[in-house]
Amino acid sequence: MVAGLKNSDSMENGNGNVFQLIVKQGEPTLVTPAAETEKGLYFLSNLDQNIAVIVRTIYCFKSEEKGSANAGEVIKDALKKVLVHYYPLAGRLTISSEGKLIINCTGEGAVFVEAEANCAMEEIGDITKPDPHTLGKLVYDIPGAKNILEMPPLVAQVTKFKCGGFVLGLCMNHCMFDGIGAMEFVNSWGETARGLPLTIPPFLDRSLLKARNPPKIDYLHQEFAEIEDKSNTGDLYKDEMLHRSFCFGPEMLDKIKRQAMEDGALDKCTTFEALSGFVWRARTKALKMLPDQQTKLLFAVDGRPKFNPSLPKGYFGNGIVLTNSICEAGELLDKPLSFAVGLVQDAIKMVTDGYMRSAIDYFEVSRARPSLASTLLITTWSRLSFHTTDFGWGEPILSGPVVLPEKEVILFLSHGKERKSINVLLGLPASAMEIFQEQMTL
After folding, report:
1. Which keywords appear in this protein's UniProt record, sorted alphabetically (predicted)?
2. Are 23 and 159 contacting, i.e. CB atoms less than 8 angstroms apart?
3. Which of 179, 262, 376, 408 has fewest C-beta within 10 Å?
4. Per residue of the chain (442 residues), what is the pLDDT tens digit?
5. Are 400 and 132 in contact (CB under 8 A)?
6. Quick one: DSSP state of residue 335?
7. How far is CA 192 from the centre of its chain?
8. Which of 425, 414, 178 is nearest to 319 (CA)?
């Protein structure tokens, strides 16, 4: 049963033809766990509190041999079963007596919608760059939800296409898990759909990351520092925003690493370190920051192995911590690439058990959110195996975000069959994007 038209706007499908994507959405239903689950309040750690944003992703599946007529039913049935293990996802966000986010495990269920598109999947065009106008139709937004408390932690939409393929679109609240946790959940869901036991069952107890009593802040947490925008970049962002993706193949990535090492200042560097330094400089230049403008780089480090003891396998929650580096734009651009890459390396080295516990305690005392003024926030999905998700129709031919969560975010996604290339996705004001593009030719 399919009811109501959902946003139809025209777009070019890459062949220069203006194409109208129309998605008809069915009535949303609530999918509750298949068995009785625990009720009551479920603790979210301070690492969960900081990133309570909705992450929208899509997974595109082809189905040459096996028709996808029952895809919605199979995925919905598997969701019921997997929610028994991941029961907090069937609850609702609320505010605790301490004024923090907490989950009320009501068992109400995740929201599920089946939909139909008026075309073949190929006609959508390039989905490797975030495009909220088009890809936004492949995820279901709760009508009238004014804030995250009014949105269930998990909303799923299965859209069937004329070609027999289908897309799974997910809206998940980042406070429920980081990329690794989300990947483990979606892969567990796929295993359940194929009748397999969970390879990595979730470890649900987040009290491992409780703040210390009394809190102990041993580090200067500059990730929360508010930087004055002397360069008026805020005005630039009033222009039209452009979203682009830049693909860095293995040769180009090697070239950037060689460039970072050529002056002998660094003994070694990883692909992530070299690429982060490279795009930080390029974006700083593109935004025409003044030489004395401070610029901050923020990025997430996986704290799971860095905690002492390390977090248990399958930890359900955010095990990532934000680290940072701050310097003046003039210094960043005047010095060689090795300088920027060295700053990235120092920021990674800073992340120890002591630093992460201090960050947890800092939030306990200050309730601060990391400031994004004059900041670049790099988020890396290149090591996440979202492409291995299989609900019985093989691995997705494409997967990725619908939209970048903030204008300051740049996303690294692995790309290609061998996953040796990295797609860099970002949005910039049109004038800045032109300069950024020039910087991308090595």
Report:
1. Acyltransferase, Transferase
2. yes
3. 262
4. 222 323 334 444 444 445 678 999 999 999 999 999 999 999 999 999 988 889 999 999 997 666 788 999 999 999 999 999 999 999 999 999 999 999 999 999 999 999 999 999 988 877 777 777 889 999 999 999 999 999 999 999 999 999 999 999 999 999 999 999 999 999 999 999 999 999 999 999 999 999 999 999 999 999 998 999 999 998 889 888 998 999 999 999 999 999 999 999 999 999 999 999 999 999 999 999 999 999 999 999 999 999 999 999 999 999 999 999 999 999 999 999 999 999 999 999 999 999 999 999 999 999 988 889 899 999 998 777 767 899 999 999 888 889 888 899 999 988 766 678 999 999 999 999 999 999 998 7
5. no
6. S
7. 24
8. 178
The amino acid sitting at 235 is: D
Enzyme catalytic residues: 174, 390
d(CA 415, CA 398): 9
Q: Which amino acid is it at 293?
A: Q
**Shortest CA distance to 247 belongs to which of 382, 144, 114, 359?**
382
Distance CA 403, CA 411 (A): 10
